[in-house]
Specification:
heterotrimer; A alpha/beta (273); B mainly alpha (253); C mainly alpha (256); A: 273 residues; alpha/beta; Rossmann fold; 6-stranded mixed β-sheet; 4-stranded antiparallel β-sheet; 10 strands; C: mainly alpha; 81% helix; 0% strand
Chain lengths: 273, 253, 256
Amino acid sequence: MVAKINVKNISKTFAAGSLKVKALEDANLSIKSGEFVTLVGPSGCGKSTLFNILVGLTPPDPGGELHIDGKHQPSDHLLGQVAFMPQRDMLLPWRTVLDNAILAAEIDGVPKRRARERANASIERFGLQGFEAHYPKQLSGGMRQRVALMRTFLFERDLMLLDEPFGALDALTRSLMQRWLLEVWEAERRTVLFITHDIDEAIFLGDRVVVMSARPGHIKFEIEVKLPRPRAPEVVTAPEFIELKRQLLGIVEEESLKAFSAMNRPLLADAKS
Amino acid sequence: MNAEVRPQSIAAQLVVVPLLLVVWEGCVRVLGVSADKLPAPTVILEVIWELRVSLAGAVGTTLLEAVIGLIAGTIFGILSGIVFSRSRIIERMFLPYFVGSQAVPILAFGAIIIMWFGNGIASKAVIAFYLSFFPVAVNTLSGMRSVGQDEIGLLRTFGASSWTILFKLQLPAALPAILTAVRLGASLALIGAIVGEWFGATQGLGAVLLTAMYEYRIDYLWAGIVLTGVTGVVMYGAVSFIQNRIAWWHAEA
Amino acid sequence: MNADGATHTIPGLLKNAFPPLLAGIVLLVAWELAIWYFSLPNFVLPRPGDIVLAAAEHPHAFLADTGATLLEAVTGYVIGAVLGVGLAVLFVALPVFERTVMPVYVTFNSVPMIAYGPLAIIWFGIGSMSKIVLILISVSYIVLLNALAGLRSCDAGTVELLRTFGASRKEIFRKLRIPSATPWIFSGLRVAVVQAMILAVVLEMLGANSGLGWAIYRSTQMMDFIEAWVAVAGSVLASLILYSIVTVVGRRIAWW
């Protein structure tokens, strides 16, 4: 079966004056259609850079290739092809919840009326009934993320890229949101690539967990999560889960330490943070 | 939210403006525009040079009026701001009037100010004061308020008294905002001084402009305009310099 | 933007209005007392009542003058505001214009606008035109600076996000930059409306044949100080009303 998305030897170098930072080096990744893949890695490993490349915001270095549905995609064609959800919700303060949810679809060319109808149909699924006419200012963090997720889902694309969408939420809200996300995803089974730094979240959500190395980033390790779906909340204490976690922890820690010691060598991108 | 000119623009100014002056000079010469409609830049510079002594005196007088008014306004503004930040009651009673005072076109009161304070420097300084105290008061207040209760609480756990907190925490925190307001106040003070002179004065840049207008001397008028601009830029630059020296940690409030 | 407590309910409004009203009454009483105690002559500070009476004596002239000044101020203001926003949009869409035109604008405006007053009067006469021209330039500059800052104030992340939706530059402009800029523009509009009135009145004092500034000048020449105060009161009222209008409109359009 042709992979939904095939990342081949993607590299990315950032240059600032005489300083060169290699964010990604020969990253290779293959994702099947309908798969939910979670991506973990230490800070600064290039996860967000990879996403920016996949989404078309940055071109990869020459030599790397991106294939979607078997077809090679040049970088400048990618914009508008992938449903992207960044870390911050970026809701527009002057738009209501409903109008924020339809923003991507609206830009995509869907007539406002139809987009609003579709949004209204999903409002309950996203737990926002009654809040359609509210403004972002009036919502809690968790609700804002749900609006942003709704916006991402209403953008009818097979491929979704979610960059740590639950990172800013507290632990309780986060586990609720994870369960809710899986419910919503089950309905359509789109292909999802999900970045997180939380190993529990990665295992709980994913069909497959991919670990990125420290900078320069490449795919270091992959493991299938053979836990049954739908995922029950108790699964986090199941022996299989713990075993997966044990394996992943070792590898992720190893990469995190590398990234940590790298911080002591001043590099332009690090110096900024 | 008051926008400021971006630094790149200053560099661009240094290129475009001389170019413009050249074009201006060229147009006047080539098209033979008469000197009493639009004099060439070289003519303006000649006038400034010829009358440099009296013009320097005019700049000095106006500068004195504006600076005195500005300093007085700054002091009063800072004190008011501190008082307002201390007492909500006083703030709610008097701040609306501070605000209202600025909706009043003080410059319309000019004639009356001259009546009250005479024809000399004092009346112009009063107008300059009136125009500059408000932005300083408002920015002092908001600057003082920008320090959260958490930080104040922390200093109290170190045993700090209210005065210590005022001088070591709140005022330094407010300094960038205060100086931004003083920069605005500098422009306003200059305007106040000039308009004040229009109501009654024999010296100063305002008097120069007025005289030039009555005597229909456009070259003298442009000399006055140029010098007014230069004075304004110098005042603004001086405050900016001070701001960069003592309150460099914030670009803008 | 600040919100000073609940002003959208009647009790809230009264509660907020009470302290300044109290202070206002105190000031008025102090005003009357000062005049009585110090036996202040008329030309220093007349009684508030006298001012109102004088205005009521010949309302036509008063209204005519107010109207003339308002006409100058509002005309210059509207044209200037449109110009300011237009230039800002142009500069953001085509940066080459900013690099060439902006430096000239900045230099020109580094001279306080009133200093151009005598020049404007020589070139355009003492009629409304000289005032309108200067007001127009001054307002456009203030609005331009604010609009430019506002159009550029939206954060890069949001711009990029819209690009991933496939938005064109024009769409990003319409859907993101302009709404982001609106609060900034209104901030500039508020400042500019006060400036416009001040400029109108001051320029009239320099040279005019109608308007509140001209009335003030004429009255003080004739030593009729009550009249001067009437005109001053008129300009204060007009300023306050214009400022309120802009503020209220601003709150409705750029409420966030």
